[in-house]
């Protein structure tokens, strides 16, 4: 069954990623380049989004994997994952990420000179942050590729055994009033016992908390789709309950973070509230998307293809524009607006003029060569993308 709401969520969450990375330019948290004026109040909406923005992407990607494997053999699935994830990653590392590091070095007075001097001599010397070689915001791609390869045998088994007890158990659980909350226990264990010892690095090697946490969420996406209509009926019917629980959960979590000193007891308590909160907001988004967004459209068809190149391009554009705004003296609202519009605008121009029309460039940004005009797309013929790619 086609799920347009999954495609809408994918597009909207990656669109939100642009706003989030623009916000990182203004908040006190560490980022590649920072505005001269920092706005403490912006931390609160950023914290809210930060709870669920990455988890829901891995859940959606797991859901998309279910659809992808329904029409491919294991070998075909692995080949597609490699070509649509590894090739854009290589292009990003060689062409898209180096300008970000270059701008960061300029802003921090760590390099003097133009980009043509920097790229051949310094761009790939040493590993970031000490060196310059990095995949920066494209870390999502190698993690997703690794998860796909590791779980491929498990997914193939579940596909061949739809009556497997685990799937039947999930179908029964999701029909209970709070049955979907079984999912927070593994997340709680990783948050409690891995997060304190393995800080998030996005370096893949040694990043154990991130690896285990997002691997679980990726697997959840596959399981929830395997549960079929029971999952969608539950989140649609109980979306308001999840919304109320999410508001309470986020409020309690903020109170814990800002009102108490760090301690072992606080860590275990905060971990429980954190995973409850992030999972609840994922259910909220799925519930409201299922109710209001499960419909096709030309905008969706266009955005669903454009979102992958936008993801690859956007942060470099944000960093470059941010560098030229450093000494502009602009207040928050005009600076934020320029960054958002500039990032969307230049991403669209590059996509529309330099990527979308050219068959030999499209695969470099994760797009299929066969381009179907939007007007010719029939809703029943479009495959569900469900994540990157």
Helix content bin: 55-70%
User: Strand percentage, roughly?
Assistant: under 5%
Q: What is the rounded Rg?
A: 21 Å
Number of helices: 14
How are helices and strands ordered from N to C?
Answer: HHHHHHHHHHHHHH
Distance between the termini: 19 Å
Low-confidence stretches: 371-387
Q: Mind describing the biggest β-sheet?
A: none
In total, the number of strands is 0
Q: Per the principal axes of the C-alpha atoms, what is the gross shape? A: globular
Q: How confident overall, as mean pLDDT?
A: 91
Q: Give me the secondary-structure category.
A: mainly alpha
> How many domains in all?
2
Offer a few descriptive terms.
single chain, 67% helix, 14 helices, disordered C terminus, 389 residues, mainly alpha, 2 domains
List the helices and strands and how they pair.
Elements: H1 4-24, H2 43-70, H3 74-96, H4 98-107, H5 115-122, H6 140-160, H7 165-174, H8 184-193, H9 208-226, H10 229-237, H11 239-259, H12 264-292, H13 298-325, H14 332-355
Short structural summary:
This protein is mainly alpha-helical and 389 residues long.
Folded structure, characterized:
- The structure is a single chain.
- The chain has 14 helices and no strands.
- It is mostly helical.
- The protein has 2 domains: 341 residues, no CATH class; 26 residues, no CATH class.
- Helix 2 packs across helix 9, helix 4 runs parallel beside helix 13 and helix 8 packs antiparallel against helix 12.
- It is globular and about 60 Å long.
- The two termini are 19 Å apart.
């Amino acid at each position: 069954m086609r799920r347009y709401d999954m495609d809408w969520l994918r597009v909207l969450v990656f669109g939100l990623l642009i706003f989030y990375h623009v916000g990182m330019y203004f908040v006190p948290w560490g980022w590649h380049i920072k505005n001269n004026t920092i706005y403490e109040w912006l931390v609160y909406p950023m914290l809210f989004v930060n709870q669920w923005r990455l988890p829901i992407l891995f859940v959606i990607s797991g859901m998309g994997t279910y659809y992808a494997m329904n029409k491919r053999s294991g070998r075909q699935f692995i080949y597609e994952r490699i070509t649509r994830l590894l090739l854009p990653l290589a292009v990003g590392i060689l062409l898209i990420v180096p300008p970000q590091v270059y701008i960061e070095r300029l802003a921090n007075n760590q390099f003097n000179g133009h980009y043509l001097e920097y790229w051949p001599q310094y761009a790939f010397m040493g590993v970031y942050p000490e060196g310059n070689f990095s995949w920066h915001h494209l870390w999502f791609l190698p993690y997703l590729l690794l998860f796909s390869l590791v779980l491929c045998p498990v997914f193939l088994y579940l596909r061949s055994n739809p009556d497997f007890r685990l799937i039947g158990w999930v179908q029964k659980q999701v029909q209970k009033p709070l049955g979907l909350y079984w999912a927070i226990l593994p997340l709680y264990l990783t948050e409690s016992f891995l997060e304190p010892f393995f800080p998030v690095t996005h370096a893949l090697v040694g990043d154990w908390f991130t690896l285990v946490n997002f691997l679980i969420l990726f697997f959840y996406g596959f399981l929830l789709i395997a549960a079929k209509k029971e999952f969608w009926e539950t989140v649609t019917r109980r979306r308001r309950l999840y919304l109320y629980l999410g508001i309470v959960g986020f409020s309690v979590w903020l109170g814990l973070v800002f009102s108490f000193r760090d301690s072992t007891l606080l860590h275990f308590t905060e971990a429980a509230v954190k995973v409850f909160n992030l999972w609840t907001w994922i259910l909220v988004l799925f519930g409201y998307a299922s109710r209001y967004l499960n419909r096709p459209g030309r905008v969706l068809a266009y955005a669903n293809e454009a979102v992958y190149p936008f993801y690859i391009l956007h942060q470099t554009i944000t960093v470059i524009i941010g560098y030229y705004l450093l000494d502009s003296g602009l207040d928050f609202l005009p600076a934020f607006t320029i960054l958002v519009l500039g990032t969307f605008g230049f991403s669209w121009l590059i996509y529309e003029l330099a990527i979308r029309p050219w068959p030999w460039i499209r695969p470099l940004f994760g797009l299929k060569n066969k381009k179907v005009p939007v007007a010719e797309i029939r809703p029943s013929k479009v495959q569900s993308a469900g994540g990157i790619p």
